[in-house]
Specification:
The chain is α/β, with parallel strands linked by helices and 99 residues long. The protein has a domain at 26-92: 3-Layer(aba) Sandwich (Rossmann fold), CATH 3.40.50.850. Helix content is 37%, strand content 26%. The protein is built from 3 helices and 5 strands, in the order H-E-H-E-E-E-H-E. The protein has helices spanning 15-21, 34-47, 73-88, and strands at residues 26-32, 51-60, 64-66, 69-71, 90-92. It has a 3-stranded parallel beta sheet with strand order 1-2-5, with helices on one face. The longest helix is centred in the C-terminal third of the chain and has 16 residues, at 73-88.
């Protein structure tokens, strides 16, 4: 387990060292707040030279309703996955064989 204080799980933690010590290049990302923690952790892995995979249906987010901003959780989740898939990571559904 890694206790984090920033949306990117590699910032201020030993996650990068753990990944390297395990000899892994590939990193699987899943969790809450697709539009924040999942996105920034996938980006962080990519920028470190890892090969991140995000498991879409093992992630979720909440709606944002602040002032004139009103975005449903589903739209926010799908938009975040589109951003991730555009550059940072492979996005898959659970049950997909990872090789």
């Amino acid at each position: 387990m890694v206790v984090k204080t920033a949306p990117n799980a590699f910032v201020g933690t030993d996650l990068g060292e753990r990944v390297e010590a395990a000899g892994n290049k590939q990193v699987i990302v899943m969790g809450l707040m697709t539009h924040m923690c999942v996105t920034f952790t996938a980006e962080g892995a990519f920028l470190r030279g890892n090969q991140p995979t995000v498991v879409a249906d093992a992630c979720a987010t909440r709606p944002i309703r602040r002032g004139v901003v009103n975005v449903s959780a589903e739209v926010l989740h799908e938009g975040a996955l589109a951003t991730i898939a555009d550059l940072y990571a492979v996005v898959v559904r659970s049950g997909t064989s990872l090789q």
